[in-house]
Amino acid sequence: MRIAIAGGGLGGLTLARILHRHGIDAMVYEREASRSARSQGGSLDLHPESGQRALADAGLAGRFRSAARPEGEEHRILDPAGRTLVHHRPQPGSFTGRPEIDRSALRDLLLDSLPGDAVAWQHRLVAATPRPDGGFGLMFDGGHSADCDVLIGADGARSVVRSLLTDAALSSVATLVELSISDADRRHPDLAELVGPGNLWCIGVNQILAAQRLGDGSIRVGISLRADDRHLDTYRSKRALLDMFDGWDPSLTALIEAGDGPPTPRRIEAMPTGTRWAHQPGITLIGDAAHLMPPVGEGANQAMLDAAELAAELATNPADPDSAIQTYEEAMFTRIHPIAEMSARVQAMMLSPTAADDIIRFFTPQPAESAPAGRAAIL
Ligand SMILES: Cc1cc2nc3c(=O)[nH]c(=O)nc-3n(C[C@H](O)[C@H](O)[C@H](O)COP(=O)(O)OP(=O)(O)OC[C@H]3O[C@@H](n4cnc5c(N)ncnc54)[C@H](O)[C@@H]3O)c2cc1C
Asked: From the CB of 9, is ligand 1 less than 6 Å away?
């Protein structure tokens, strides 16, 4: 069984690693030129029941604990005047919650766990064609080609493989503008203290100014705005952003002024909740390719859990990959539906006129709960 995984992100690499542990080879085709070709972005909190469970299946729980930052779970929510609405402090040194890990550290951890030749870098899949005798012919940018018996699309938000299974369209759910502040403790001690070791969200009317501490001492700033038709260039100047936050406390807007370079805007998209497809032989999707959701703290966790569950099915039933895939797909559709609905609700709530009140309610543990129901991770 030749398994091809399109995409070497968190989902694809977790899948390759767990299959490898079961003695099943898989080839990962990744469009980037090398592991360091692109900055991997901010940090993630990995949940015990999904991301951390997948790392346990991958035999990487110990290495995760060495690389993770439990103190990064600390988060503060402020209003535009700088008043604290919520301040969550995790138990010092405790790994029982949702410790943060930088994306780059997590990706490195997965890459280091794979044989050197498991990832074919600079292989952007441009087309997959079903072969008459089963499996797929794969065509890559630049003219390379390959064959496989099973094709797994782990190629993220704009998946090429997805179009072989569903014509679900993406819709814009927000605009995210990012800035980075390097060496924050030395260069901007006030901002370092404001953000703390984890996440900060300043909630306004239809807009959020957020900041997140990374393991390298930098601060990643993210501005979330409602989706609109304005050209992305509108958001490329700090001056324009500062105008949007007119009236906010200067201690907060200092996060925009301190950005190292010009702001980088992008559209945040999602698939319709409840997306599913009719099973087809020899092909499936995991992660954002299968269920792109608004970024409220579940996407990477679910991508890794998809990988763990699909790998477990394939390892249990190696002689019948189609039945393994079908079992995975049914369970994944059922698991993801309520999570995608919750993500859409939280996203709408975060960028609403009454966001501050709604978020306080959301983050206030109910009597039976000991932790917030979810993480409103706009970063
Ligand atoms: C701003 C933001 C914040 C977020 N915060 C969180 C969070 O706190 N917690 C959380 O759980 N999730 C979070 N998410 C969601 C999370 O990033 C994704 O859900 C997760 O990365 C999905 O993993 P994946 O492996 O499916 O896709 P990706 O991580 O996107 O990986 C896809 C890979 O496929 C490669 N690729 C793409 N196309 C091709 C092609 N044609 N051929 C070959 N390779 C290809 C890409 O280069 C990439 O390496 C956030 C998302 C955003 C946008």
From this structure: yes
